[in-house]
Request: fold
Amino acid sequence: MATTSKAKAAPAAKAAPAVKAAPATKAAPAAKAAPASKPVTAAKVAAVPAPAVAKPATVLSMNSHKSYGGLTEPEILKQPESEYMSKRQLEFFREKLVELRSSILHNATDTGEHLRDTEVATDPSDRATQEEEYTLELRTRDRERKLLKKVDKALRMIDDGSFGWCEETGEPIGLARLIARPTATLSIEAQERRERMQKLYGD
Reply:
């Protein structure tokens, strides 16, 4: 019986189908070797234009969008040098200075009313805080009082035709400097020279 079972088992082993190897898949197109890139010469690199970078808009003051004498700050800066201190430019600075003068006077009026209407605090700590606030406010008004004198001087210079020209050298002060500081009477170079002299020899 054992011999018979062994004999029968042998054919069963042969009957098992052989596992066929999977057919080789074709190489994907991406696997192909890419053609060697040509070296980029310096001439070609130089020929490629650099991307244009947008220049930021010039903003010299908080009122750069506002029109004075029919001109805004960007518009007056675009004018040619031949228009320096022309009638329109002088009107631009006149209106700018008049507005600054009105603002200073308004602040002075507000401070006076504020000091008159505020009651003196009874608590010592509150009174100390109140006095410190008053001192700071009065100091600010004192600076504005000095600025008011410069504004009045600049308005007189517009009337006599000397506005926009350096008092020491007679050269143009420059539109950008005048827009940022319309009371300027010196060019940047003359101002720096004066400050150096003051440091060396005092006031």
